Amino acid sequence: SDEWTRHRATTRAARDEVSAWDGDSGFAFVAQQKHFEVGDSDFYVDLILYNIQLHAYVVIGLKASSFKPEYMGQLNFYVNVVDDTLRGEHDNKTIGLLLCNGGDKAVAQYALSGNNQLIGVSDYQPSKANPENLKLALPTVEEIEKELSKMIRK
Q1: Which of 20, 24, 32, 68 has a C-alpha 20 to 30 A away from that of 110?
Q2: How many Å apart are CA 94 and CA 90, to the nearest integer?
């Protein structure tokens, strides 16, 4: 389908950009289309990175379409699976980042509200993609550390 083709192109472009700044940005590439078997079902996570400074996995969901609330449930599921299967005892909680091709900010705010995971949503347009734009979409180390500190104090 057209949406699947766009999704694959988006994933490939983002993966290539992330790979280009692997290491010097504090992020290490872990996997693309990582397979997880949960119950009797198969799931594939678009991208998984590891932030060396934060000692945390970063699960990136890529959507070639505009934001839909159900994407948050899927990303939350993937964050939980990575937390349970990959995160070690010295790693911090997994961070989720959903990159969509546009969408309504008010809808995204409602979808994020009440979620206790470290999850963010950002606009990502492959036609305007470059490493700087993708870096801007990712939360800064300081923002993530601040959120982690808040969660640890709870």
Answers
A1: 32
A2: 12
| Nearest residue to 2 (alpha-carbon basis) of 10, 75, 74 | 10
Query: What pLDDT is attached to residue 11?
Result: 66
Q: Are 82 and 119 in contact (CB under 8 A)?
A: no
Over the stretch 15-40, which tens digit does the pLDDT of each residue have?
666 555 555 567 888 888 899 999 99
Question: Residue 30's closest CA among 55, 10, 58, 8?
Answer: 58
Burial tier of 48 (Cβ tally within 10 Å: 0-12, 13-18, 19+): buried
User: For residues 144 and 154, what is the distance between their CA atoms, to the nearest angstrom?
Assistant: 16
Q: Give the residues across from 38 on adjacent strands.
A: 41
Query: pTM for the complete prediction?
Result: 0.71
